[in-house]
Amino acid sequence: MREESSFFGREYLLRSLLQAGAQGRWLGLCGGPSSGKTSTLRQLLVLSRRQWKRAPQETPYVPVLVDLNECRGAGAAQLPALIWRQVTAALREPTVRGGAGEIEMPTPAFTGREGDPWQVLMQSCEELWGGLRGREGWCRYFLCVDNADLLLSGQFKHSLGPLVEFVERGEDFAPCGLIVAGSRVLREYLVDDLGYFHKSVRPVFLSPLLEAPSESMIRATLSRVTPAQLQVIQEMTGNHPRLLSLCLHEIRVSGALGSVHSLMRRVSLAAEGLFEEIWEQFDLGRGVTYRGAYAAPEHALMQLLIDQKDQGTTVKEAERELGLRPLADYFELLELLGVVERTLRGDQRVTRARCRLWNQWYLDRISL
Questions:
Q1: CB count, 10 Å around CB of 155?
Q2: pLDDT digit string (tens) for 148-171?
């Protein structure tokens, strides 16, 4: 057995995100718990470094990762300071500096009683870039804000406007683009016609891995996996990246694939926390414990898809079966949470609830 790599698939998405950030576009990367949002943002750094090395004569476009969890529970004024720390840390990357030596960094004070922290941030960035112009260390950067659901919380209600103003400055010391990554809360905010980001941020949705990268991830750990075993693992996990990782870990610990029933039990125990997180976004605190079309739309749809097994269903078929419409947004939500997959059957998009681990956990949960 070989250790699996930490990142598989989504190469096209990575290239699209990197290009969008460099071109000054704004994107919202939306996915469920442990669906790969943070890994994708971090992988942008890896891809960027490869590009800088391949084309050292071109202007580097630097992804600057800002995790709002680092400000959780602190004052919202900590956000400008966090952005500054991450920007300056990115500029210390030797590949970004090219042949330039160490960069002299301003030392702004964000904690004083006087002065707006956002103005301090902009003035400090302007001073820093003023010293970089005409030097090999000059570059552009775009912000990648992880756990961006927090931007919509009470803690950051006064930070959203200044953040947008900072990105919109259009000068070389300001971000040239913005990627915000979050879950269901961010998705619904982005698709809401009245949302602050509705016209400026284009949503991009994560989904379960495709078959090819899923197979690559499995074979990286199980080099001798048989086609039958491969199918069992993919159907058990629904190609959810975190469930795949947990499943492969359990196989690696035990030394063999073994009994499917035993493996499902072990992985389900390991995934309990993940399933609870998915449930929290799925159920929104309603505590659904009943079945059928009288349930909330996402629950009624989830139950229908589980009943359909491998046959799956289309949006129109589900609307007709449940007597609920429109359901397209709920299909999208289930895919975003990583618990269903959408495939083509002829010229129709068919959705299947293929993740056996989630399906069993979900049915047990609504039967409580």
A1: 18
A2: 999 888 888 788 889 999 999 989
pLDDT tens for 335-367 read 999 999 988 877 889 999 999 999 999 999 988
Q: Are 240 and 271 in contact (CB under 8 A)?
A: no
Instruction: Of 342, 356, 350, 344, give the one whose Cα is nearest residue 244.
Output: 356
Both structure tokens of 218? 């499995």
Cα separation, 336 vs 339, whole angstroms: 8
pLDDT score of 292 more than 70: no
Spatial contact of 54 and 33, defined as CB atoms under 8 Å apart:
no
Neighbour tally for 257: CB within 10 Å:
18
**Token pair 């929104």: residue:** 284
Report d(CA 72, CA 155) in Å as an integer: 8
Domains in the chain: ranges and CATH:
11-205 (3.40.50.300), 211-270 (no CATH), 274-366 (1.10.10.10)
Residues in the chain: 368
